[in-house]
Amino acid sequence: MENGFVKSLRFLLECVLDLVYCGDEKCILCREELYKDKIICTTCKSNIKICKDSFDIKVHNKQCRCYSSAYYSGSMMELILKLKYKNSFRAGEVIAGYMKDTIFNNKIEFDIITYVPMTKKSIKKRGYNQSEYLARLLGKYVDKPVVSCLDKIKDTKDQIGLSKMNRWDNIQGSFKINNEHSIENKNILIIDDVLTTGATAFYCCSELIKAKVGKINILTGAKSKV
Ligand SMILES: [Zn+2]
Protein backbone atom coordinates (compact mmCIF):
# COMPACT_ATOMS: atom_id res chain seq x y z
CA MET A 1 0.00 0.00 0.00
CA GLU A 2 1.25 3.47 -0.84
CA ASN A 3 1.02 6.11 1.86
CA GLY A 4 -0.45 9.55 1.24
CA PHE A 5 2.92 11.19 0.75
CA VAL A 6 4.00 8.73 -1.95
CA LYS A 7 0.62 9.10 -3.66
CA SER A 8 0.94 12.89 -3.72
CA LEU A 9 4.47 12.62 -5.00
CA ARG A 10 3.37 10.25 -7.76
CA PHE A 11 0.51 12.62 -8.67
CA LEU A 12 2.91 15.57 -8.83
CA LEU A 13 5.32 13.60 -10.99
CA GLU A 14 2.50 12.73 -13.40
CA CYS A 15 1.52 16.40 -13.63
CA VAL A 16 5.10 17.41 -14.40
CA LEU A 17 5.38 14.68 -17.05
CA ASP A 18 2.07 15.80 -18.56
CA LEU A 19 3.34 19.37 -18.76
CA VAL A 20 6.63 18.34 -20.31
CA TYR A 21 4.88 16.09 -22.78
CA CYS A 22 2.10 18.54 -23.65
CA GLY A 23 4.52 21.33 -24.39
CA ASP A 24 5.56 20.41 -27.91
CA GLU A 25 3.61 17.24 -28.63
CA LYS A 26 1.59 17.42 -31.79
CA CYS A 27 -0.44 14.83 -33.65
CA ILE A 28 1.94 13.24 -36.17
CA LEU A 29 -0.80 13.29 -38.83
CA CYS A 30 -2.49 16.71 -38.59
CA ARG A 31 -0.07 18.62 -36.31
CA GLU A 32 -2.93 19.42 -33.93
CA GLU A 33 -1.81 19.97 -30.30
CA LEU A 34 -2.16 16.79 -28.26
CA TYR A 35 -3.62 16.82 -24.79
CA LYS A 36 -4.33 13.41 -23.35
CA ASP A 37 -3.73 11.65 -26.68
CA LYS A 38 -0.36 10.10 -27.18
CA ILE A 39 0.73 10.11 -30.82
CA ILE A 40 -2.33 10.92 -32.91
CA CYS A 41 -5.30 13.07 -31.93
CA THR A 42 -8.86 11.88 -31.33
CA THR A 43 -10.04 13.41 -34.63
CA CYS A 44 -7.46 11.43 -36.62
CA LYS A 45 -8.20 8.33 -34.56
CA SER A 46 -11.91 8.65 -35.33
CA ASN A 47 -11.41 8.07 -39.04
CA ILE A 48 -9.60 4.76 -38.58
CA LYS A 49 -12.04 2.12 -39.77
CA ILE A 50 -11.50 -1.02 -37.69
CA CYS A 51 -11.65 -4.26 -39.66
CA LYS A 52 -13.61 -6.96 -37.86
CA ASP A 53 -13.60 -9.53 -40.65
CA SER A 54 -11.06 -12.29 -40.98
CA PHE A 55 -10.86 -15.01 -43.59
CA ASP A 56 -9.15 -18.33 -44.22
CA ILE A 57 -6.74 -19.10 -47.02
CA LYS A 58 -6.14 -22.72 -47.86
CA VAL A 59 -2.47 -23.49 -48.43
CA HIS A 60 -1.65 -27.14 -49.27
CA ASN A 61 -4.64 -28.41 -47.25
CA LYS A 62 -3.84 -26.17 -44.31
CA GLN A 63 -6.24 -23.42 -43.24
CA CYS A 64 -4.42 -20.21 -42.39
CA ARG A 65 -6.45 -17.36 -40.95
CA CYS A 66 -5.85 -13.75 -42.06
CA TYR A 67 -6.64 -10.83 -39.76
CA SER A 68 -6.25 -7.09 -40.37
CA SER A 69 -6.62 -4.39 -37.75
CA ALA A 70 -8.14 -1.67 -39.94
CA TYR A 71 -8.97 -0.83 -43.53
CA TYR A 72 -6.33 0.83 -45.69
CA SER A 73 -7.96 4.25 -45.77
CA GLY A 74 -7.99 7.54 -43.85
CA SER A 75 -5.55 7.85 -40.96
CA MET A 76 -4.49 4.19 -41.10
CA MET A 77 -3.32 4.67 -44.70
CA GLU A 78 -1.42 7.80 -43.69
CA LEU A 79 0.21 5.94 -40.78
CA ILE A 80 1.29 3.07 -43.04
CA LEU A 81 2.76 5.46 -45.61
CA LYS A 82 4.59 7.37 -42.89
CA LEU A 83 6.05 4.17 -41.46
CA LYS A 84 7.02 2.88 -44.90
CA TYR A 85 8.34 5.95 -46.65
CA LYS A 86 9.00 8.63 -44.01
CA ASN A 87 10.88 6.62 -41.34
CA SER A 88 8.12 7.40 -38.85
CA PHE A 89 8.57 4.84 -36.09
CA ARG A 90 5.95 6.63 -34.00
CA ALA A 91 3.43 5.85 -36.75
CA GLY A 92 4.55 2.23 -36.34
CA GLU A 93 3.79 2.40 -32.62
CA VAL A 94 0.21 3.47 -33.35
CA ILE A 95 -0.27 0.70 -35.93
CA ALA A 96 1.21 -1.94 -33.59
CA GLY A 97 -1.15 -0.75 -30.85
CA TYR A 98 -4.12 -1.53 -33.09
CA MET A 99 -2.58 -4.89 -34.01
CA LYS A 100 -2.22 -5.78 -30.34
CA ASP A 101 -5.95 -5.05 -29.87
CA THR A 102 -6.75 -7.35 -32.81
CA ILE A 103 -4.74 -10.16 -31.19
CA PHE A 104 -6.62 -9.78 -27.89
CA ASN A 105 -10.08 -9.22 -29.38
CA ASN A 106 -9.81 -12.32 -31.57
CA LYS A 107 -7.90 -14.37 -28.98
CA ILE A 108 -5.30 -15.25 -31.61
CA GLU A 109 -3.00 -17.93 -30.18
CA PHE A 110 0.60 -18.45 -31.26
CA ASP A 111 4.01 -19.38 -29.89
CA ILE A 112 6.21 -17.23 -32.07
CA ILE A 113 5.96 -14.16 -34.27
CA THR A 114 7.59 -13.81 -37.66
CA TYR A 115 7.27 -11.22 -40.44
CA VAL A 116 7.17 -10.84 -44.19
CA PRO A 117 10.81 -10.33 -45.22
CA MET A 118 12.33 -7.84 -47.66
CA THR A 119 15.27 -8.42 -49.98
CA LYS A 120 18.68 -7.27 -48.74
CA LYS A 121 18.66 -4.68 -51.50
CA SER A 122 15.32 -3.20 -50.35
CA ILE A 123 16.41 -3.12 -46.70
CA LYS A 124 19.55 -1.29 -47.72
CA LYS A 125 17.47 1.25 -49.61
CA ARG A 126 14.84 1.86 -46.89
CA GLY A 127 17.12 1.19 -43.93
CA TYR A 128 14.65 -1.12 -42.19
CA ASN A 129 11.84 -3.60 -42.79
CA GLN A 130 8.60 -2.01 -41.60
CA SER A 131 6.95 -5.40 -41.05
CA GLU A 132 9.85 -6.55 -38.89
CA TYR A 133 9.55 -3.32 -36.91
CA LEU A 134 5.83 -3.99 -36.29
CA ALA A 135 6.61 -7.62 -35.39
CA ARG A 136 9.28 -6.60 -32.86
CA LEU A 137 6.98 -4.05 -31.20
CA LEU A 138 4.23 -6.67 -30.97
CA GLY A 139 6.69 -9.19 -29.58
CA LYS A 140 7.34 -6.76 -26.73
CA TYR A 141 3.65 -5.94 -26.25
CA VAL A 142 2.52 -9.59 -26.03
CA ASP A 143 5.78 -11.04 -24.69
CA LYS A 144 6.42 -13.58 -27.46
CA PRO A 145 9.68 -14.29 -29.31
CA VAL A 146 10.19 -12.86 -32.80
CA VAL A 147 11.91 -15.31 -35.13
CA SER A 148 13.25 -14.47 -38.57
CA CYS A 149 12.49 -17.57 -40.62
CA LEU A 150 11.81 -16.35 -44.16
CA ASP A 151 14.09 -14.73 -46.73
CA LYS A 152 12.98 -12.75 -49.72
CA ILE A 153 15.07 -13.93 -52.62
CA LYS A 154 13.45 -12.06 -55.51
CA ASP A 155 12.89 -8.35 -55.98
CA THR A 156 9.24 -7.55 -56.60
CA LYS A 157 7.21 -4.45 -57.35
CA ASP A 158 5.07 -2.95 -54.59
CA GLN A 159 1.81 -4.93 -54.57
CA ILE A 160 -0.34 -1.81 -54.31
CA GLY A 161 -1.03 -0.52 -57.80
CA LEU A 162 -0.71 -3.87 -59.58
CA SER A 163 -3.69 -5.73 -61.04
CA LYS A 164 -5.02 -8.76 -59.18
CA MET A 165 -3.45 -11.30 -61.53
CA ASN A 166 -0.12 -9.51 -61.66
CA ARG A 167 0.11 -9.51 -57.88
CA TRP A 168 0.16 -13.30 -57.73
CA ASP A 169 2.71 -13.59 -60.54
CA ASN A 170 4.76 -10.79 -59.03
CA ILE A 171 5.22 -12.50 -55.68
CA GLN A 172 5.41 -16.20 -56.63
CA GLY A 173 8.73 -17.84 -55.82
CA SER A 174 10.07 -14.82 -53.97
CA PHE A 175 10.18 -16.29 -50.43
CA LYS A 176 12.40 -19.00 -49.02
CA ILE A 177 12.36 -20.61 -45.60
CA ASN A 178 15.42 -20.52 -43.34
CA ASN A 179 15.87 -21.48 -39.70
CA GLU A 180 13.52 -24.50 -40.12
CA HIS A 181 14.33 -26.16 -36.79
CA SER A 182 13.39 -23.12 -34.71
CA ILE A 183 9.79 -23.19 -35.97
CA GLU A 184 9.02 -26.91 -36.04
CA ASN A 185 5.67 -27.70 -34.33
CA LYS A 186 5.26 -24.04 -33.41
CA ASN A 187 2.10 -22.00 -33.91
CA ILE A 188 3.13 -18.96 -35.90
CA LEU A 189 1.83 -15.44 -36.33
CA ILE A 190 3.06 -13.76 -39.53
CA ILE A 191 3.12 -9.95 -39.49
CA ASP A 192 2.84 -7.67 -42.51
CA ASP A 193 1.90 -4.01 -42.95
CA VAL A 194 -0.82 -4.27 -45.60
CA LEU A 195 -2.83 -7.17 -46.97
CA THR A 196 -3.92 -6.81 -50.58
CA THR A 197 -4.87 -9.98 -52.47
CA GLY A 198 -3.44 -12.34 -49.87
CA ALA A 199 -0.80 -13.48 -52.36
CA THR A 200 2.07 -12.53 -50.04
CA ALA A 201 0.39 -14.32 -47.13
CA PHE A 202 -0.23 -17.39 -49.30
CA TYR A 203 3.38 -17.78 -50.49
CA CYS A 204 4.81 -17.08 -47.00
CA CYS A 205 2.52 -19.78 -45.52
CA SER A 206 3.44 -22.18 -48.28
CA GLU A 207 7.16 -21.83 -47.36
CA LEU A 208 6.54 -22.14 -43.59
CA ILE A 209 4.50 -25.32 -44.10
CA LYS A 210 7.68 -26.99 -45.39
CA ALA A 211 8.95 -26.91 -41.80
CA LYS A 212 6.02 -28.88 -40.32
CA VAL A 213 4.76 -25.95 -38.34
CA GLY A 214 1.60 -25.91 -36.23
CA LYS A 215 -1.14 -23.36 -36.85
CA ILE A 216 -0.43 -20.29 -38.96
CA ASN A 217 -2.22 -16.97 -38.52
CA ILE A 218 -1.50 -13.80 -40.48
CA LEU A 219 -1.99 -10.33 -39.06
CA THR A 220 -1.61 -7.08 -40.99
CA GLY A 221 -2.00 -3.49 -39.86
CA ALA A 222 -4.34 -2.71 -42.74
CA LYS A 223 -6.40 -4.38 -45.41
CA SER A 224 -6.56 -2.79 -48.82
CA LYS A 225 -9.74 -3.12 -50.84
CA VAL A 226 -8.72 -4.86 -54.04
ZN1 LIG B 1 -4.58 14.56 -35.77
Automatic annotation (TrEMBL):
Superkingdom classification of source: Bacteria
Stretches of the chain forming a coiled coil according to its record: none
Family: Belongs to the ComF/GntX family.
Name of the protein in its database record: Phosphoribosyltransferase domain-containing protein
Species this chain originates from: Clostridium kluyveri (strain ATCC 8527 / DSM 555 / NBRC 12016 / NCIMB 10680 / K1)
